[in-house]
Write a structure and sequence with these properties.
Blueprint lengths: L2 H21 L14 H5 L9 H20 L4 H4 L2 H5 L14 H5 L5 H20 L9 E3 L6 E2 H32 L1
Antiparallel strand pairs: 1-2
């Protein structure tokens, strides 16, 4: 198996998690006859926590930002009009890092909007990764770290970050479902 096949599989696992959360796959704890509701997408465990909608938006923004940078391309967020569709009250460069609790609460997209943006980013990511050679993965993409970060390490980091956030979103969904059931 080539390294790019491993990366493709990793990004595919992120896609599977995001689709499960948004479409109603039972692996995410949602019945197969329904998708995640808007109330569940914006549910926050408390006023300082992140919602499912923010977590999925953030993981997609990070993937878009990091892969676009590595590919030397404009982000899908701006090149395909997603920033305008989301109409968020912060800069188009925002990816969620360092946002306040108030700012995270302002991310309240629909499942369809999140899904569309995620799928567009995922397709661009796969096209980029599948065009790489194993030698490409040794290219240094960030010299501000010691040791410098290679493309392979950066892509693995993105996968790890996205999987953590999708797991967090699945947890929040479970809490939201329990809260609704006990109300």
């Amino acid at each position: 198996m080539r390294a790019t096949e491993v990366l493709t599989d990793g990004f595919g696992r992120v896609r599977d998690d995001v689709r499960a959360l948004l479409s109603g796959d039972t692996r995410a704890g949602v019945g197969p006859e329904q998708g995640v509701t808007h109330e569940q997408l914006v549910f926050r465990i408390d006023d300082s926590s992140n919602s499912i909608g923010w977590l999925l938006w953030h993981l997609t923004r990070v993937e878009d930002d990091h892969v676009a940078d590595a590919a030397g391309e404009e982000q899908v967020w701006t090149s395909a009009g997603w920033a305008e569709r989301f109409a968020l009250p912060f800069a188009d460069t925002a990816t969620g890092y360092g946002q306040s609790a108030r700012e995270t609460g302002e991310v309240q997209p629909s499942a369809e909007l999140l899904s569309g943006y995620f799928e567009a980013v995922h397709e661009r990511t796969l096209a980029f990764v599948q065009g790489l050679s194993d030698d490409d993965l040794d290219r240094v993409v960030d010299e501000s770290w010691d040791p410098p970060v290679t493309l392979g390490v950066r892509l693995l980091s993105v996968i790890g970050d996205c999987l953590q956030h999708s797991g967090q979103a699945a947890y929040v969904l479970g809490v939201a479902q329990r809260a609704a059931a006990s109300a």
